[in-house]
Amino acid sequence: MNQAKHIAIIMDGNGRWAEIQGKKRVKGHEAGAKVVKEITTYCSNHQDIERLTLYAFSTENWKRPRLEVEFLMKLLESYLKNELPVYLENNVRFEPIGDIRAFSASLQKTIQEVKEKTAHCDGLVQSLALNYGAQDEILRAINKLKNCENDITEAMLSNALDCPHDVDLLIRTGGDHRLSNFLLWQSAYAELFFCDTLWPDFSISQLEKIIHEFTQVERRFGGLK
Ligand code: IPE
Ligand code: IPE
Ligand code: MG
Questions:
Q1: Which of 88, 193, 219, 221 is deepest in the core (most CB within 10 A)?
Q2: Domain boundaries in the chain?
């Protein structure tokens, strides 16, 4: 039976969730943040799950209206400040991925603080993908290695990525069937699950169902059964 050691989620559908209810898109992001908390706590109590990587803000999301981007930045900062005690209580280590240098000094400081204060936690690793794009991640990794004398190996490139861990199970909520520049290298052999549920409506029971289906899949990695 497969174990979903590393689960990655493209948390999509916040804006539509709000719009359907006649609310502003940002209300969807607020509701989505509550689900991040629930799913993280669930995963931290699940014995097989070691890593949970959540797509929170892509390198392409800067294209959105300024007010929405500003709201997302504020929401992220308050989320991290409020969640620090929860991370510690649940023994969750926070390891952000993405190029956070684009964020304000204050947000970068908060991200760094939560990372440092949870560095000793040895339960679930929760990675939020922040100003993350897989193409940007791969390019930054190549640039780190470009002066090395020998040919770059798969292991070297992998280790130079923000996230050097293969994904077992990748879930996208919100009904679209695309990766939107998320963990392209790490998902080479991930099992992909797409569900129509908008992220703020995504529940623990849906996650449990997907994990159960995942355990039944025959993963061959190019070999034969
Ligand atoms: C995902 O929800 C959250 C972020 C990209 C920050 P969206 O905001 O993309 O919601 P939809 O897809 O427009 O409904
Ligand atoms: C992907 O969702 C990014 C996050 C969930 C953070 P988007 O809503 O940005 O993706 P597209 O634009 O539909 O591909
Ligand atoms: Mg979207």
A1: 193
A2: 6-133+167-216
Q: Which ligand is nearest to the CA of 14?
A: 1
The model scores a pTM over 0.90: yes
**Catalytic pick among 48, 61, 99, 166:** 61
143 flagged as catalytic:
no
pLDDT in tens, 87-133: 999 999 999 999 999 999 999 999 999 999 999 999 999 999 999 99
Q: How many CA atoms lie within 13 A of 146 on its CB side?
A: 7
Going from the Cα of 71 to the center of ligand 3, the distance in angstroms, rounded, reads: 16
The class (CATH top level) of 6-133+167-216 is alpha beta
Report the pLDDT value the prediction gives residue 45, as an integer from 0 to 100.
98
CA 177 vs. chain centroid, Å, equals 17
Phi-psi region of 202 (alpha: psi -120 to 50; beta: other; left: phi over 0): beta
Asked if 131 is an active-site residue, the reply is no
CA of 13 to the centre of ligand 1 (A): 5
Mutate to test the pocket of ligand 2, among 58, 76, 177 (most ligand atoms within 8 A of CB): 58
